[in-house]
Structures are given as C-alpha cells and as structure tokens.
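Thread: quick sanity check before group meeting

JM: Hey all, I'm pulling together slides for Thursday and realized we never actually wrote out the predicted structure for the chain we discussed last week. Dropping the sequence here so it's in one place. If anyone has concerns about the input, flag it before I start.
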Amino acid sequence: PSVSSGFQSKAYVHTDAPVYRPGHEVRWRAMFLDATGGAYRVPKARQGRVLVKDARGQGGVDEAVTSSAFGTFAGTFSLDGAAPLGVWTVQITVPHTGSWEGKFEVQEFKKPEFTIKLKPGKRVYLTVEKL
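JM (edit): ok, ran it. Output follows.
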C-alpha cells in the first residue's frame, strides 16, 4: 500500500447483512479513501477488482469494478442453492494502493424450536372472560 505522510489508503468492505442463506442475493459495498497529500481524500473514479471467496477458500466472483464519484465500489451476486456453509470473504483490490476484505456468513435455515407451557387459573372460561 502507498504511504503518504504516515497515512495509508483505506477501504471498509461490508455486505448488507451479516448472514445469508444458500440461494440468497448478496449486496456488497466498499468505501475507499485515498491517502494523498497527508490526508484522506475521496478519490476520483478508481479501477479495482473484487474477488469473492467461499467458505472453502475457493473463488467464485472475480471481476473488475470502478468506484463512484464518492469513492465507493458496489456490486451484487447470488449464492447458489448448494453454496458452502461458513464464513465467506469479499476482497477489494485497488492497484498500487492495497487490498481489503469484509466477511459474511452463509448458514442453513433452522426452524426455531420452542415450547409454550400454559397453566390456566381455572378449568373453564366463558367466551367473554380474559385468560
């Protein structure tokens, strides 16, 4: 990464939710600040690359991206129905500057299990009475 007066360019990479299920769509975003002239600045459009690695460390999405006028990179991708469960990584790389990553989880749906035990105050209630 480049260094300017002790500053290093930074990016914060995140997804719109911390947990997804197989088959869901993932929306990711990276906010990028360039360290130039001894301060952090929003860069003009920058070219970058996004790489998404599944829970096994295998790459799926690997594509070029361009930042907005506000220094953000963004994109979406869909998890297939057989997506590996576990922690996934979204990595953004800006050439000659650095590489940053954010993580999210893919978990299977588990139906919540609970039991309700109710002991009425009396044996019979009329329709108009409160329990």
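AS: nice. Residues 1-5 have pLDDT under 50 and may be disordered. The CA atoms of residues 15 and 28 lie 4 Å apart.
JM: adding both to the slides.
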